[in-house]
Design goal:
globular; Rossmann fold; alpha/beta; 21 helices; 394 residues; 48% helix
Length: 394
C-alpha cells in the first residue's frame, strides 16, 4: 500500500521544515518557466501554502525535472502534483475523452481495446505472459504498450533468454499518477503488487523505461513500496550486454539522428542517458543533441493536458520539442519513450521529419530479425481514437 498522497513524496525523510529554504532553484532551473529568483521564491511559497500560483499551473509540463535541481534532495514535483490534485478536485473538471480513453480504469480503454483486436496467436502470447515464469535470475516485464506488440517481443532473438511476464492488468500507474489521480494510482499499485506475488527473480528488466521509473523509483523512493528484486530497464540491460561483448552489432545503421530525452529519463539519471547514447552510437548512428536535452530536456507535452484539461496545451508543448528537432537540421529523430513516440510522430506528420522508436533500431542492429512494428501500433491506435472521437464536421 503506497503512502496516502503526493505530499508524502515531497519530503520522504520528513525534513522539509528545516531543510526547504524556498531558495526557488527548482523553478529557476526549470527549462520551461525559467523564473528569476524573486518570482521563483514567490511562486514556490504559494505552492507550500496551498495557494493559487501565477504561472506554475499555466506553464508546468509536470516533467520531473525540478527534482534534479533541489539542493536538499526534496521532490518539488510531488508538491506540484499535490497542488494539482487539489486544484482538479476543486474544479470538478475531467480529462478530455481521448486522454481518459488511455486510462486503465477497468472499463473500455485504449490498451484493453488494442489487446482485444490482436490476432489469436498474439492473444495466446498474452495468455502465456499472464503466468509467473519459473525462478530465473532475470525476467522481462512487459507493460501496457509492449503488450500491444507481443509477437515481436516473444520471438525476439536478442531477448530470447529472458523469461517474459506481463499480465494484462499489470500497471505501474504512471498515467493516473501524472494526471493527478493518486487514489487510482494507489489502487493500481496494490493490484499489481498482488500480480507480482510469487515472482522469483533477482532482477526485473522493464521493456518500458517509464515502468522502470515507477516500479524501481517512484514506488519505493517516493511512496515506500519496494519490490523484492532489483528493477532496471531494457536500455541499460542491452548496454551492459554490448559492453561485455555478450551482444554484438550485426547490422550497422548509418547516418545522423536527433535524439530526444523523455520526462522520466531525468529520474533514471546518467546511467540511463549514457546507455541510450551508447547504444545508438554503437550501432553506427551519429547522435545529434537537441538544444534542451538530458536534465534540461523539454517534455513532448502529453502530461501538459493536466494544466487546464485542454488538448491544445499538448500541442503547444510538443511544438517546442519539434522546433528544436528542426533546428538540428537532421530529418530523422529517435525517442526512447513510447509516449514521446506517439505524440511526436503525430506532431510531425507531413513535416518531412521521420520518427523512430529507438528500441526497434537497436534490436534490429543487434541481429533481431523480428521487427517490432511500433509504427503499425500507432496507426491502429489512431484508428481506434478516430472511431471513438471523430473530428467534428467543418
Amino acid at each position: 500500500m503506497p503512502n496516502t498522497s503526493y505530499i508524502d513524496a515531497f519530503d520522504p525523510e520528513k525534513k522539509s521544515e528545516t531543510t526547504c529554504q524556498n531558495c526557488g532553484l527548482c523553478l529557476q532551473k526549470c527549462p520551461v518557466m525559467k523564473m528569476d529568483k524573486k518570482e521563483a521564491i514567490s511562486e514556490f511559497a504559494h505552492l507550500l501554502k496551498g495557494e493559487e500560483t501565477e504561472r506554475v499551473f499555466q506553464e508546468c509540463t509536470f516533467c520531473f525535472r525540478c527534482n534534479h535541481y533541489c539542493p536538499h534532495d526534496l521532490k518539488p514535483y510531488a508538491l506540484i502534483m499535490e497542488r494539482l490534485s487539489e486544484r482538479i478536485s476543486k474544479s470538478g473538471k475531467e480529462l478530455p475523452p481521448p486522454i481518459k480513453y488511455f486510462m486503465n480504469d477497468g472499463e473500455s480503454c485504449l490498451f484493453y481495446d488494442m489487446y482485444d483486436i490482436l490476432a489469436d496467436y498474439e492473444k495466446e502470447i498474452l495468455d502465456k505472459w499472464e503466468v509467473i515464469p519459473p525462478k530465473s535470475e532475470e525476467v522481462l516485464f512487459i507493460g501496457c504498450a509492449g503488450r500491444e506488440i507481443p509477437y515481436g517481443i516473444e520471438y525476439s532473438s536478442v531477448l530470447k533468454d529472458l523469461p517474459k511476464f506481463g499480465p494484462r492488468k499489470a500497471c505501474c500507474g504512471e498515467l493516473f499518477y501524472r494526471f493527478g489521480d493518486y487514489k487510482a494510482f494507489s489502487k493500481r499499485v496494490d493490484d499489481t503488487l498482488a500480480l507480482f506475488e510469487g515472482l522469483d527473480t533477482k532482477r526485473l528488466v522493464c521493456y518500458c523505461g517509464s515502468c522502470a521509473n515507477f516500479l524501481g523509483n517512484i514506488w519505493p523512493n517516493y511512496h515506500g513500496v519496494k519490490l523484492p528484486f532489483e528493477v532496471t530497464n531494457i536500455w541499460e540491460w542491452l548496454w551492459e550486454k554490448v559492453q561485455k561483448g555478450e551482444l554484438k552489432v550485426q547490422n550497422k545503421v548509418t547516418g545522423k539522428i536527433a535524439l530526444t530525452d523523455s520526462c522520466y529519463s531525468t529520474e533514471l539519471g546518467d546511467k540511463f542517458f549514457e546507455a541510450v547514447r551508447g547504444l545508438n552510437e554503437a550501432i553506427g548512428l551519429d547522435v545529434v543533441e537537441l538544444k534542451n536535452n538530458r536534465y534540461d530536456g523539454l517534455s513532448c507535452g502529453f502530461c501538459s493536458v493536466a494544466r487546464n484539461f485542454d488538448m491544445a496545451d499538448v500541442m503547444v508543448e510538443s511544438k517546442k520539442k519539434v522546433d528544436q528537432i528542426v533546428e538540428t537540421g537532421v530529418t530523422d529523430f529517435t525517442t526512447h519513450c513510447v509516449g514521446c513516440y506517439d505524440i511526436l510522430s503525430t506532431a510531425t506528420t507531413g513535416s518531412g521529419l521521420k520518427s523512430h522508436y529507438g528500441l526497434e533500431d537497436i534490436l534490429w542492429a543487434l541481429g533481431d530479425e523480428m521487427a517490432i512494428p511500433f509504427i503499425h501500433r500507432v496507426a491502429v491506435q489512431r484508428r481506434l481514437l478516430q472511431s471513438r472521437f471523430p473530428a467534428p464536421p467543418e
